[in-house]
Amino acid sequence: MIQFQYERVSTPAAALSALSNSGNAKFIAGGTNLVDLMKRNVMSPRKLIDINSLPLKHIEQQNGKVTIGALALNVQVADSKLILEKHPLLSQALNAGASAQIRNMATVGGNMLQRTRCHYFYDTTLPCNKREPGSGCGALQGFNRMHAIFGASEHCIAVHPSDMSVALVALDATVLVRGPKGERRIPFADFHRLPGDHPEKDTNLQANELITAVEIPDNAFNQHAHYYKVRDRASYAFALVSVAAALNIDGGMIKEARLAMGGVAHKPWRLTEAEKSLAGKPANEDSFRQAAAIAMQGAKAYKYNAFKLKLGENVIVEALKTAAQKA
Ligand code: SF4
């Protein structure tokens, strides 16, 4: 592992100041991904700025929304009475996302910023445009079983690994960030990027900005919500395919639907056309199958991940069925 400097800060202003005064510095909180990346020489920051003392651990309801501080631990959010009551989809996604040990360390902000688990990205002897722009994509013609079926580019076909982010995009969350020019708000759907020509950029967060919180507006999806994750090992693994499904049902009819997928794209993949197709339909398997077919339009598989096309459709249907059956 490389040598690096370490600094602990206790206010957001001090965190931003430390960042602007250092070249190649990174914030660290739980460190559950960054430390792994440093051990493998995938990332080599010269300075770590420890932000664990910042007052960003709140989980509170006010003015028609729930606000979650960027440093709230995944376990605190998943077990929060407020989240369980108002946004059970988020709690389910967090519990599906990682082991108890990881959930005890990982923060909300760090979860959003975790990097792809593409094997070629982690192996510094292999080409990877995300790790080293211009070096090529080992996965494109390689073993791409875990890779994208939506939104990929010729430069990168990696998928975003966070389960929490799939629930947050379905819940229309907003990311609050702070930088040298003040605060700004980023709709969650615009926070992560598609790879395009710049797969080295995972998000639209600027290098001099700090995530301070996530907001989730109140909604009527708390009765019928389900996060369904299919993975190779039940004892925690990243998603082959996951689906966040939430329905607002009245008298057996769907008033509104929310759907997003994980494990299929470089960002959490919102399925807005499928959502629209469900509005006004009966909450039954026919409606769910039609929505799943719409959701999978435009999907493109590579040599080893064609199984995701059928799997994705089936997981959408099962997630919607389970969500609808919840009382
Ligand atoms: Fe790198 Fe992306 Fe290709 Fe994986 S898919 S090797 S992360 S460029």
Keywords for this structure?
21% strand; alpha+beta; Uridine Diphospho-n-acetylenolpyruvylglucosamine Reductase, domain 2; binds iron/sulfur cluster; Enolase-like, domain 1; 5-stranded antiparallel beta sheet; 4-stranded antiparallel beta sheet; 327 residues
Any overview of this molecule?
By secondary structure, the chain is α+β, with helices and mostly antiparallel strands. Among the domains are: 1-55, Uridine Diphospho-n-acetylenolpyruvylglucosamine Reductase, domain 2; 224-325, CO dehydrogenase flavoprotein, C-terminal domain (Enolase-like, domain 1, 2-Layer Sandwich), CATH 3.30.390. It is built from 13 helices and 12 strands. Helix 11 packs antiparallel against helix 12. The longest helix is centred in the last third of the chain and has 19 residues, at 307-325. The chain binds iron/sulfur cluster. Iron/sulfur cluster is lined by residues 116, 118, 120-121, 128-130, 137-139, 156-158, 199.
Ligand species: iron/sulfur cluster
Number of E-state strands = 12
Secondary-structure-derived class: alpha+beta
CATH superfamily of the domain at 224-325: CO dehydrogenase flavoprotein, C-terminal domain
CATH class of the domain at 224-325: Alpha Beta
Which spans of ≥5 residues are poorly predicted at pLDDT below 50? none
Overall mean pLDDT stands at 96
Write a brief caption for the model:
With 327 residues, the chain is α+β, with helices and mostly antiparallel strands.
